[in-house]
Amino acid sequence: MKNKTLITATFVGLTAIATTANAVPDAPKNWEKCAGIAKAGMNDCGALDGSHGCAGQAKADNLDTEWVYVPEGQCAKIAGGVVAKVKPAK
Questions:
Q1: What is the DSSP code (8-state) at residue 70?
Q2: Closest-CA residue to 72 (of 29, 27, 41)
Q3: Are 34 and 62 in contact (CB under 8 A)?
Q4: pLDDT tens digits for 45-85?
Q5: φ and ψ of 75, to 5 deg
Q6: Terminus-to-terminus CA distance in the chain, angstroms?
Q7: Are 27 and 46 in contact (CB under 8 A)?
Q8: Could you give the CA distance from residue 65 to residue 20 in angstroms, rounded to a whole number?
Q9: Mean pLDDT of 5-17
Q10: 86 bridge partner residues
Q11: Sign for the pseudo-dihedral over CA of 20, 18, 71, 76
Q12: What whole-number distance in Å separates Cα of residue 29 and Cα of residue 43?
């Protein structure tokens, strides 16, 4: 009987830990295109100058025409980041 109680208590404790460990912060209400911070091959969607229309096509790091989405208000906090446009979250 002791083993069954110990196993049940352990399971309950692990379940409580797993439930709290997987908490996800609230999603931002708005996103902004942050230009000048994308790494080569890591941009979101097309270039601001229209040179390409797909994600993952940035040729070099930190190009002024390449961007990534960040939560609104964060771009200005990133060295080299310039807000290109704000987009409401879906």
A1: E
A2: 29
A3: no
A4: 999 999 999 999 999 999 999 999 999 999 999 999 999 98
A5: -60, -45
A6: 52
A7: no
A8: 40
A9: 46
A10: 32
A11: positive
A12: 21
Tally helices (H) and strands (E) across the chain.
1, 3
More confident residue, 55 or 10: 55
| 82 φψ region: left (φ > 0), alpha (ψ -120 to 50), beta (else) | beta
20 pLDDT above the threshold of 70: no
Q: Could you give the CA distance from residue 30 to residue 15 in angstroms, rounded to a whole number?
A: 33
Please enumerate in sequence order all residues whose Cβ is within 8 A of that of 57, keeping only pairs 6 or more positions apart, or say none.
41, 43, 47
User: What is residue 10's predicted lDDT score, i.e. its pLDDT?
Assistant: 43
Please, which residues have CB within 8 angstroms of residue 53's CB and are 6 or more apart in sequence?
A: 45, 46, 47
Q: Is the pLDDT of residue 13 over 50?
A: no
Average pLDDT, the chain: 80
